[in-house]
Amino acid sequence: MAAAPIVIDDADDPRIAEFRDIKERDLTGRQGRFIAEGTVVLRMLAVAHVNDGDFVAEKILLLRNRADGVSEILAQLPDDVPVFIAEAEVLDRIVGFHMHRGVLALGRRRVSATSLIDRLPETALVLVGAGISNHDNAGSMFRNAAAFRADGVFLDETSCDPLYRKALRVSVGSVLSVPYERGGTAEALLAQLAARDFAIWTLSPRGETDIRSIPPSGRMALVVGTEGEGLPQEILSRFRSARIPQSEGLDSLNVATATGIALFAMSSAAGRI
Amino acid sequence: MAAAPIVIDDADDPRIAEFRDIKERDLTGRQGRFIAEGTVVLRMLAVAHVNDGDFVAEKILLLRNRADGVSEILAQLPDDVPVFIAEAEVLDRIVGFHMHRGVLALGRRRVSATSLIDRLPETALVLVGAGISNHDNAGSMFRNAAAFRADGVFLDETSCDPLYRKALRVSVGSVLSVPYERGGTAEALLAQLAARDFAIWTLSPRGETDIRSIPPSGRMALVVGTEGEGLPQEILSRFRSARIPQSEGLDSLNVATATGIALFAMSSAAGRI
Predict the structure, then answer these.
(1) tRNA/rRNA methyltransferase SpoU type domain spans which residues (chains A, B) (predicted)?
(2) Which of A29, A162, B207, B271 counts the most CB atoms within 10 A of its CB?
(3) What is the pLDDT, as a whole number, of residue B28?
(4) Structure confidence by residue, pLDDT tens digits, B135-149
(5) Chain B residues with beta carbon closer than 8 angstroms to that of A245
């Protein structure tokens, strides 16, 4: 049962302070809190919340005329999650820009007792990102991981937090559904995965194995680096590398698209799709 | 031989008027003129220009401290293409925002005497976009078409012009290297392609044929629709449809990524990559 909506008519109301100027600053890093934006992401957050997943909805802020449109989603949430509504003029002053979507939630990530690497199933496909600092690319990578049934995403400490508002939005909420962990160096992460019998495949335009010829194995990890630079040589020389066959040219595929194609090929090889 | 650079110290100088406020307005549609941004796109424009391709460089505008970095590219252009340079403060006033890249060109598309459909080789792979209005997606689709060696891109009249500054930038200049045509209805376009022996494959999450099982044929066309809505039912029911196998869920892959995967699969099937 959703809470009865509370009308906000003052942008300075402390009850909605977390939604202030969300374009200029990001809550990420403040005790795992984040802003979820749009109906699709709200729905994913509600699903995680009611299933005791890794995420909790703390409060909702809606444009008044959007409240009816999301009532079905809100009905799933318990009534201790407050729902605030505001007119467009007030909402725009709260968030600091014109907000035509008008659906916002404050969420929090729960700290998991066991690390993701120890929770992975016996047969698993994971995605590892090193230096993925672009929020769009991070979001798209989660979307692709969800589409091709990856069991988890690992991001090194130099990658951005996928709970950034834009990454989360671009992921169409997949950041809330695909288990992930972020932190540590890519080298340490890959050593841990290798020790747990993962076949590690780095992706590079100059990779040795055609992505269509990767042999299937029970546990597979795809490793992608930042656009432009790619993966550091230390990583490329330590693990097997795969390439997506394509035109020779100055610029390879966008990292998000390349990740999608590689996950498609690996998920195909493993018989997962 | 490049022209000797001309210093611009007044943002209102009529010689660089086309670069004024480029964020707010777009030249597209004005006799095929467009703004190319960044070193990579400038290089593609210079290549098209000197090879008598579909595009001509009309003038160049650079941040003073970027001029050395692109001198090799400019040296390819004839000296009747003027090169203007400006300090950061002047350049920012010209373009209307802070321009840290500092490499701009005014280009023009030449009108081709013969239509693209009549210039396609006997064995061909083409991409058809219907209702691709998002500039990012349009740009990414060209990048994917270039990576997987498509012979051409057709966009219907409801798709955006790929020469929009952002589409061109996201394409990393592929809009200037992959032949394309834009206009007409998708239905008319597909009828023309079918009449020229193209096997038409529409892409849809509910497509009948797994994209990995498309039979190769000499001439193949991949048809993609707008994100969200997808292709209209009239088109889906008239032609064969393909799907990318993926998780069931509310949101399918991003249209750019889906196009990349489908082109990868079709180009593989046809033995082109």
Answers:
(1) 125-264
(2) A162
(3) 60
(4) 999 999 999 999 999
(5) 268, 273
* Cα A230 to Cα A136, B43, B89, B129, distances in angstroms: 17, 22, 34, 30
| Chain-chain contact of A253 with B149 (C-beta, under 8 angstroms) | no
Domain residue spans of chain B? 6-109, 116-269
pLDDT tens per residue, range A143-161:
999 999 999 999 999 999 9
Per-residue confidence band for B185, with pLDDT thresholds at 50, 70 and 90: very high
- Chain B residues within 8 A (CB-CB) of chain A? 40, 43, 140, 143-144, 146-149, 172-173, 212, 244-247, 249-254, 256-258, 260-261, 264, 268, 273
The partner residue sitting opposite B143, judged by closest CB among A140, A173, A253, is A253
Across the interface, whether the CB atoms of B146 and A247 are under 8 A apart is answered: yes
Q: Are A10 and A93 in contact (CB under 8 A)?
A: no
Mutate to test the interface with A, among B39, B40, B171, B246 (most CBs of A within 10 A): B246
ipTM given for this complex: 0.91
* Amino acid at residue number B227: E
A29: left (phi over 0), alpha (psi -120 to 50) or beta: left
Residues pairing with B56 in the sheet? B108
Round to whole Å and give the CA distance between A160 and A163. Answer: 9
Right CATH for B6-109 from 3.30.1330.30, 3.30.200.20, 3.40.50.300, 3.40.30.10: 3.30.1330.30
Task: Give the pairing of strands B103-109 and B124-129.
Answer: unpaired
pLDDT the model gives residue B26: 67
Q: How confident is the model at residue B3 (pLDDT cuts 50, 70, 90)?
A: confident
pLDDT above 60 for B250: no
B258 neighbourhood in chain A, CB within 8 Å: 260
Contact A254 B40 (CB under 8 A): no
Options 2.60.40.10, 3.40.1280.10, 1.10.443.10, 3.40.50.2300; CATH of A116-269: 3.40.1280.10
Residues of A in contact with B172 (CB under 8 A): 250-251
Show residues of chain A in contact with B254, CB under 8 Å: 140, 143, 256
Q: Which residue of B has its CA nearest to A263?
A: B261
Q: Write the pLDDT tens digit of every residue in A69-107.
A: 999 999 999 999 999 999 999 999 999 988 878 999 999
What DSSP string describes A72-132? Answer: HHHTTS-TTS-EEEE-HHHHHHHHTS--SS-EEEEEEEPPPSS-HHHH--SSEEEEEESS-
